[in-house]
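Regression test attached.
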Amino acid sequence: MAREERTTKKRAQRIDLNYFKRPHPLRRMRFWLSVGIPVLAVLWLAWHGFAGSNRIYSGGKMSAAHAVLTAKCDVCHVRTASSFSAKASDQACLSCHDGPMHHPNQVFTPQCSSCHEEHRGRMRLTATADVRCTQCHADLRTTGVPTEYVRDIEKFGDGHPEFAALRPGAVDPGTIKLNHAIHLKKNLKGPNGEPVAMGCEDCHRPPTSAQPLRFGATMTAPLAIARKADLPMAISERAYMAPVTYAKHCAACHGLQFDKRFTDGVPHDTPGVIHAFLVQRFQQYIATHPAELREAGPDRTLPQKPVPVAYRIVTPSQWVTERVSESEELLWRKTCKQCHALTIPSDSSLPAVAKSNITARWMPHADFNHERHQLLQCTACHGAALTSHETADILLPGIKTCEKCHNSSVDGAESRCFECHTYHDWTRQKEVKGNLMLDGLRRGQ
Amino acid sequence: MRIDHTHKKWFAVSLVIFGVATAIYVPYAAQSSSGPRGGSAIGLTFGIVGSAFMIFAGLLAGRKKLPIWRLGRAQTWMRGHLWLGLLSLPIICYHAGFHFGGPLTAVLMVLVIIVVASGLFGAALQHYLPQMITVQVPGETIFEQIDHIRGQLLADADKLMASSAGIEDDSPAVAASGGLELATATVAVEDEIAPLRSFYVLEMRPFLANHGERHQLLADEDRAYSAFQGLRTLLPVNAQQTAKKLEAICDEERQLRRQAKLHHWLYYWLMLHVPLSFALLLLGCVHAFTALRY
């Protein structure tokens, strides 16, 4: 064999015993790479440092709301001379926007950043975790007077009570008489006598709806639902249905005729205004029709109406008084009473009409948006409207209806607390004066 | 280092640490309000532990510089480097909540992944290649000496050819010219060994002198064997011994080539692993400082 000629001993003798004193090229390369790459890393940091940018130290993308502050670390991370830490403080948050307290009787106030976690990507800061709410509401304790709210809510599907308006003992404070079932029947008599079938949207529209009502006046000006000061949260202008009003929704079908001599009706107003209107209209009428002073009065056979004599002569004021009385009898006892709760006094004074008290928002502590649910038919949630005959029926869907979609299953819609509730009591909001300028903000200086 | 039964304890301990870390992380991540964060108490603990593992792994370089210090056995350090370095990847992922975060943390995550992956690749090479070298390179030498020995092989071959032509090493012809001229000059002198000299000039010397050439006749063991077999049939008896020695030199050159190739695999991954490890430790310190501050 050729290999046997070159023994190990011979090979060993050929080794340069000082070889280790001169590093191999590979070792030299490794050394320089080991120096060069960390130096590159330092240069990278230094470059950003000299450029005055700290964004490389960011813990992640800012939320969409704060994305513009990505290069302005010190807006939130305020440094103080005496402290090493420069963590985002509540004062930094409050310098740009107010964060009103939740409730006067709360036992502690969490830090802004404990609920609104930044540097988590382009997410909504308001999308807080349930645990931020349940850290109190799972075992609710308050200072001062005991709370009226449920004390042990774990999440929407666990411990959350039925909506207050649907709990036993809750009543609809409204006094307007309405039969939903009748209004949703087919072949109702329309404004011109033609048969119509009404739908929910013929009466219930958001305030900013531009489409004309089929059986009412066009909604030109938004109707106020509730003032912001009344409610602890901001609402979309299409979130809630505008209150139903007689003039826009009912008048087309439900006229307020008071006498066959006139084609128009009385104004939908207080009894005093209506009385004055009637007096004025009859006075105007008799002035132009004096012959009627010698004729028999209207042969209407209303209950308790005295039998008219065939012919008699009355003064204009007598005639007006009698006609007004007849018309008011019709209105107070039939037309108005069909919808309103009237208290008719025994004497001849005007009746008292109970306030309508229509509830614009059934859940004052929660936010709801009809617009977000527009993919559904109204009766998908308000199914009881089809069979509701009583005014007192509260047609607000219960929590079980919401839970059909809003649950914690994989394909469930959002069911965390923030979906409906807002922590901050915006009725206590204070105006904040900003202190940033556009140029500095965009340059990141 | 071979990963054999002597790693059992390290493997078991690493498995336990990984299991405990996972058992802590899973419920922590599930209950975290908006996902796990490095700044939380548990996230910070993962960060400290992961960093400690990486620092320990990085100290191996220092330990190698101080071989005579009583700092524990080198094998123990190596095993610790291997297993704790490997563990640092999941622990750091738990620390980061499997997010890359901002630019610096993203760079750190990439570095951790590359360093650990290259370390795993290197560990696999260290496990298999030495055995392969032992089998394929019986004449293995010190890696750093390969070029030195190749030079000697070339000189030995030149000497053999000169002696076969009857020219002494210290003759003026040898002194005045290189080995190539010596070989070519003697071709005309001895016609009997002309085939050997021709073979040496055209095939063998280029093979010995140009290490980078892959497609040479003698670079392939089978083709080289055939070539030498054919050559021997053309040579007289007194030149057979020279041919045999030249064949041995070629054989050793091939072994050295193979050893160099395998050793390059053993070294090249370190070009990635070591420099990036230093960068990782450096940037990790910066990250720790800025994260604690902000």
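Expected vs. actual: identical. Residues 5-138+272-293 of chain B form one domain.
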